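Example record

The entry below shows one chain as it appears in the dataset: sequence first, then structure tokens.
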Amino acid sequence: MQKIYFLKSTAFLLFILTALFICKVLIEANIKENVPSVSLRKVVGYLSEENPREATIAGMSVMLGFGEVATDFLFLQAIQYFGDWELPRERKFKMVYPVIRATVTISPHFVPGYYFGALVFDELGYIDTAVDLLNEGISNNTRAFELWLYRDFTIRLFKTKEYKKAIEGIKKALQLKGHPPILDRILAYAYEKDGQIDKAISQWGKIYISTEDPGIKAICRKNIARLIKEGSKNENNKKNKYNEKLLPGGEIKR
């Protein structure tokens, strides 16, 4: 019974896709587009073993030129699989992974695919796979700062505690025009977690000087005072250049 339903639903979807393709050809008869090529074999290869239904629908959609339709369909399927609480953890990963891989293969600039995929892999315990996906997403979407934040803040600073890698990643993101200001503060925090107290204080000082927001200035003063106090307890810690610029009232001289 399920097999009959599958065949009928698949046939209906293929009919709709064919009709849409004909309409598309008629509408775009005189329009030239530069559409990036998608490896149909690669997409179907990801899906064929664990997701044959998705392989059929996505494969036909790509072949007929409806990559966006395939992307939306696969993304919704990934959400559905992840939300199925009856699936064991390993089985859930086996179902979601190929769908996410196919999604970002069809649409490499579909940022939610990378972010959600990383979230799923992270939650299921496959952190290395999540980082690999985020690396790929960042490579294809350099200005997708949410991917930088997930990789270097959420994962590297808090989960894997790879502080030096986090610092390296955040510094690269800070070189990009239009980066979110919070990255500057995250860098200061990363320096602190890595034990580089002088650099953490220096970074908070740079933020203090560059901002006109009184709230941010207060945060900077508080962190600089805290770090100097904590650093003074360590007799091996060198005297920081901000020591002499911190006034009794907590203000920093410009």
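Notes for this example: Residues 38-111 form one domain. The mean pLDDT is 81.
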